[in-house]
Write a structure and sequence with these properties.
heterotrimer, A alpha/beta, B mainly beta, C alpha/beta, A: alpha/beta, Peroxisomal Thiolase, Chain A, domain 1, nine-stranded mixed β-sheet, two-stranded antiparallel sheet, B: mainly beta, five-stranded antiparallel β-sheet, three-stranded antiparallel β-sheet, 2 helices, about 10% helix
Chain lengths: ~375, ~180, ~425
């Protein structure tokens, strides 16, 4: 296997509505990544696009529509799609393009235009449900998360105050991020608990917003990385796993599919004690309780222990295990696939020490990013390490 | 290749133009509009057809996977654990326990409502733990509903049933002594 | 690890039928996958390391089709993903996964359940750029949300495929434009394209799973009505349902399983610009993909070295256009090849021996897999009456259909 390094990353603003089209957003993110790495279009061998439901952009086969913005005209181009897991899965696909030896330099672009779906992207979410068992009950996506959050809270006896701490931490962390949509330096637990209740136990400030945005990453073969940097950031491990479509046939309190994906990635990275060996984490946090749920899924703490770590400040930027130092989805925004920007790109920037106001102190060497997708099914995990 | 751009912080800037909802509804920005004609008619296959026909008759059917020794509901023609075919239909009781629930102040179109909807997953009797389907809960208040509560199905009258998951109106609390 | 070779150890497929009302999409996928695992002699729940499905949401009718995949392919709690592309794109990614050295056995599945989709033309139209290309075909504006430019309460007029009517035009008009260009630049005639239809539908008689076999003549094709002049009704592949699954493995695993491998020795895929107005009409994607595939498979003289070919023929002229784009015929030579019978099963470049999409049916994202399926069956010597003698090297090529400019090529070799 060829070792794979990341040599450039870029991302756009994340907002509920951006004026640019999907093609233009892809271009802006790709341009920043190319500035970072010093590459031109002809240097890129293959391109991977990650983008979530076509229904948001309103274009069938939307991967085809985004070819020009992704510097992929005349090149091998493929679109991968794992629902919400795409944010970390697209880089995994980029990794295997280079690790297989087929490409020397692979560009990964993720784009999302949720704002195109009018009046609200919720309407596209109506079609993720099973048409026979779930859709006739006319469910709302928030119900699904509320049911999982309830199960998680009940099994471990967790209080809403502990979960609200995650929203507070992440929205405050996002203040240091130029692309952030919902950064708030003054938010408190009371604000979260008093915010409008959507579907108990989920309040408005527990949810990340839909956003438009794009992100890009450039992977390169270890053999040529010296042309671009003296301080390469390598992909240490990748893992992905999916659980059954029948979500009503599973106990939702623990994301076993994330644990499977994490085990696969840790094995590849030769990590035996994740809590000790990993310096920081960017788990997927579309809802506040999901950060805790996923921390346990990533085997970074025992089941039910994540709220305790949060309460004790361990997961703050200056804590022992910083979690979502970028501000996560709750703070920066949730453009489904483009969350690669604040998950994997953030790992890259933190490891390089260029994360500015978001930089975690000390000398981080290994970070883990995770995304989650489909209908409580998909876990995708990637580890980046310095040197 | 070109020379790398040296910035002190990454991301160095945030490209993209923020526009607001009002810019769209007041037509201050140029946009184009499309509503696709999207219609599907999924064939149900043997398992789902039997399940829905069963609901029309007021019965809940599960299917047996002999290798895994579990009764699966909602039923399917193959078992995802052992990847083998399932066989033998089993009629299940219409009682169970609440696996999880939510108290929703949003109706299905995400509009706010005063009286909350109670929705969740029922874990049916006669199946392994955590086997059931999504349903509404009724005849209980939001303070009474809890995980582990025993519940029973309330069906639509026979002439109103269509062979759909909505033939079960909701699950209500099962008091001791009821069957 | 990059000196590992990738080979096909199992294939499975269902019959191809114009409608499949008796089974759900899950069951059609299950059937193909189960057959593939039996063919490979493996226990999917224990042996397969990774799964890839090739599907597009709008063909299936779900916002995230990836959710509805794992159970029926055996991927419960295993690495599984969806590639939004043709089956050959899935095979290419499976190849790369195996070459990383971390994954040994990959199952790739693709299917078509297009009969579930009632508004096929409208969905294909939905793939055109909404800003500059869709409005050309005629508007669909019945929105009832605030902010829409015009509101019309009636249902939209149906899409039609006749150039006389000025209603809403079916997106297949793009095929008409391209065929017009191809005929003009190469001097090929409509009769040559009709000969492709005759050949493929005849070949389909020898293919047990094909749906649209027919004994017709060039006159029959020429008499069928013009839908998108010069494309006629019989020039178009009709839609079909079906599923195909391949199991790929590295060569060492194949050897341990005692299987005679068919090697996936090279692949290529490429995309042209999405802008219809600036795209060339010469199947450039096929040329670039073929170049990448020939390089990987170390093929220097494709015409000499390749024994059997399956190219995308969802419109009859595309078969000839693709043969030239792939370098298997010189520009303008394909019409001679079809005239001389060189493309027949016993000819010098047997093309679409399975019947192609014209004989089997248009199976959308499974098209490339259907092509690959035929090549593998030919190389294994299991193609029955349509067997090409001494087939050692085969090429499968697919296009993603209107309005895309993407396509892929895969080259298989017998061990």
């Amino acid at each position: 296997m060829k070792e794979v390094a990341v040599i450039g990353a870029g991302m756009t603003l994340f907002r509920r509505h951006l004026k640019e089209t999907g093609k233009e957003l892809s271009f802006l993110a790709t341009k920043m990544a190319m500035e970072d790495s010093g590459l031109e279009k002809d240097d890129i061998d293959m391109v991977v696009m990650g983008s979530a439901p076509d229904a948001f952009d309103g274009i069938h086969m939307k991967g085809e529509n985004l070819i020009d913005g992704s510097a992929a005209v005349g090149k091998p181009y493929v679109r991968v799609f794992n629902g919400g897991g795409t944010g970390v899965f697209a880089p995994i696909a980029g990794w295997w393009h280079v690790a297989s030896g087929v490409a020397d330099i692979c560009l990964v672009v993720c784009e999302e235009k949720m704002g195109n779906c009018y009046p609200h992207p919720q309407t596209a979410f109506r079609h993720i449900w099973d048409p026979i068992l779930d859709r006739p009950l006319t469910p709302n996506l928030v119900w699904l998360f509320a049911m999982e959050m309830n199960r998680y809270m009940t099994v471990h006896g967790i209080k809403k105050e502990d979960i609200a701490l995650v929203s507070v931490k992440n929205k405050r962390n996002a203040v240091g991020h130029p692309c952030a949509q919902l950064a708030d330096p003054n938010i408190t637990v009371e604000d979260v608990l008093n915010s409008e209740i959507m579907a108990w136990p989920v309040n408005r400030l527990d949810i990340s917003p839909p956003s438009d945005g794009a992100a890009a990453l450039i992977f390169c073969n270890r053999d040529i990385v010296h042309k671009f940097t003296d301080d390469p950031i390598y992909v240490a491990g990748t893992g992905w796993s999916i659980d059954s479509t029948m979500w009503t046939n599973r106990d939702l309190y623990f994301p076993r599919y994330v644990a499977q994906a994490a085990k696969m990635a840790y094995k590849m990275a030769k990590i035996e004690n994740p809590r000790k060996e990993i310096d920081f984490a960017e788990p997927y946090d579309p809802f506040s309780y999901k950060e805790l749920h996923h921390l346990e899924g990533l085997l970074l703490c025992k089941k039910g222990e994540a709220p305790i770590l949060t309460r004790e400040g361990v997961t703050q930027r200056d804590g022992d295990l910083p979690v979502c130092p970028s501000g996560g989805l709750l703070g920066v925004g949730n453009p489904i696939a483009a969350t690669m920007g604040q998950k994997v790109c953030e790992l890259y920037w933190q490891l390089k020490g260029v994360a500015g106001k978001r930089q975690i102190p000390g000398d981080p060497r290994i970070g883990v990013a995770q995304a989650w997708g489909d209908i409580m099914q998909m876990g995708t995990v990637i580890l980046l390490r310095r040197g | 290749m070109v020379k790398k751009k040296e910035y002190k912080e990454w991301p160095p800037y945030a490209p993209g133009t923020h526009v607001h909802e009002s810019d769209i509804s007041e037509k201050k920005i140029t946009f184009t509009w499309w509503e696709p004609e999207v219609q599907y008619s999924w064939s149900l296959g043997p398992a789902m057809s039997k399940f829905l026909m069963g609901l029309k008759e007021g019965k809940i059917y599960g299917i047996h996977c002999k290798r895994c020794k579990r009764i699966i509901v909602p039923p399917r023609m193959f078992c995802e654990y052992c990847f083998g075919p399932t066989e033998e239909w089993v009629e299940l009781p219409d009682t169970g326990i609440i696996e999880t629930f939510s108290i929703s102040y949003l109706d299905p179109d995400a509009r706010r409502i005063e009286e909350p909807i109670l929705v969740g997953v029922v874990d049916l009797d006669g199946t392994p733990p955590h086997h059931g389907f999504m349903t509404y809960f009724g005849e209980m208040t939001k303070d009474e509903i809890k995980i582990g509560m025993r519940v029973k199905a309330v069906w639509k009258p026979e002439n109103e049933r269509e062979g759909s998951i909505t033939d079960i109106k909701y699950f209500k609390p099962l008091k001791g002594g009821e069957d | 690890m990059t000196d590992r070779q990738v080979c096909v150890i199992g294939i499975g497929f269902t019959n191809f039928n114009s409608i499949t009302p008796d089974i759900q999409w899950k069951e059609i996928m299950y059937e193909a996958c189960k057959k593939a695992y039996v063919d490979a002699g493996i226990d999917v729940r224990r042996d397969v390391n990774s799964f890839i499905t090739c599907a597009e949401d709008y063909w299936e009718g779900f916002s995230i089709f990836d959710e509805f995949v794992p159970d029926q392919v055996g991927a419960l709690l295993r690495p599984c993903c969806t590639v939004c592309g043709d089956g050959l794109f899935g095979l290419a990614n499976a190849y790369m996964q195996i070459k990383t050295g971390h994954i040994n056995i990959v199952a790739v599945e693709a299917h078509s359940k297009i009969s579930d989709l009632l508004t096929f033309g409208d969905i294909m139209l939905h793939a055109f750029d909404p800003r500059f290309e869709r409005p050309v075909t005629g508007p669909v504006e019945r929105p009832n949300y605030g902010g829409s430019p015009e509101y019309t309460p009636e249902a939209p007029k149906p899409l039609v495929g006749s150039s006389d009517e000025k209603e809403r035009i079916h997106p297949y008009f793009m095929a008409g434009l391209e065929m017009q260009h191809y005929l003009k630049t190469t001097g090929t005639t409509e009769e040559h394209c009709a000969a492709v239809v005759v050949k493929n539908k005849k070949n389909a008689f020898f293919n047990p799973y094909a749906e649209y076999e027919a004994q017709i003549s060039i006159e029959d094709v020429m008499k069928s009505e013009y839908l998108f002049k010069p494309v006629k009704r019989l020039d178009i592949s009709p839609n079909v349902d079906g599923a195909i699954c391949f199991v790929l493995a590295d060569d060492r695993t194949a050897k341990n399983l005692g299987i005679e491998p068919i090697y996936l020795s090279g692949f290529g895929y490429s995309s042209e610009t999405p802008w219809l107005g600036t795209r060339g009409m010469n199947a450039g994607y096929a040329t670039i993909s073929a170049k990448m595939a020939y390089k990987m498979a170390k093929i220097v003289e494709p015409r000499e070295e390749i024994d059997v070919v399956e190219v995308d023929d969802r419109f009859s002229f595309k078969e000839l256009q693709h043969l030239e784009a792939l370098g298997l015929a010189r520009p303008g030579e394909a019409k001679q090849l079809i005239e001389e019978g060189a493309l027949e099963i016993n000819g010098s470049i047997p093309t679409n021996t399975s019947g192609g999409s014209l004989g089997v049916g248009n199976c959308f994202e499974a098209t490339g897999m259907q092509k690959a399926l035929e090549i593998v069956m030919q190389l294994r010597g299991h193609a029955g009456k349509r067997q090409v003698a001494n087939a050692e090297v085969g090429l499968a090529q697919a296009w993603r259909g209107i309005p895309s400019g993407s396509g892929a090529v895969a080259i298989f070799k017998r061990g």
